[in-house]
Amino acid sequence: MTEVANILRNATSKSLLILDEIGRGTSTFDGLSIAWAVIEHISDSRLLGAKTLFATHYHELTELEGKIDNVNNYCIAVKEKGDDIIFLRKIVKGGADKSYGIQVARLAGVPDCVINRAKEIVEELVHADITTRIKDIAVHGHEPKIKTKKYDEVDLAQMSLFDTVKDDDIIQEIKELDLGNLTPIDALNTLYQLQNKLKNRW
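Below the sequence we write its predicted structure tokens.
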């Protein structure tokens, strides 16, 4: 953080900044928030406007490409084959839509029992996915370009003992979806949430 503070206070619009893993070493939400705010600050020509290479493990930050005009995503091309991955040593346009931490741990030689347990845990943690919320956060000083329907997380995670087991509400939600304006990730998140509702019914 001392280095980040020094860079942000002393860089100019003529600087070339190379930043790696801003926010790492803090909690996920703190780290992601710090990284997001740093990108906003650097990309704003009124504040800094420096050319920057910004490497991050927060793949949620790829959403900023559509929110800030001069932010562009690039990632390392990866080929997946089952649980195996091959890094192709090639940079391509676009952002990573997933993390490969468990596969990398496997490549590094972490024991299979730990890898298998990590897979189980990540399946549980995915229920707390923040990608949908990220899409709704406005860039500082800008209104969000697209508003998506927000779902009550309590409704998704819990069910009242007095609820009747009917799927009419799910059918109604599907009918009300504006499919023409959903991005692929919005559609996937919506499908996931609807499926989660169904799984929680008995």
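The helical segments are 2-10, 28-43, 101-107, 112-125, 131-136, 153-157, 168-176, 184-199.
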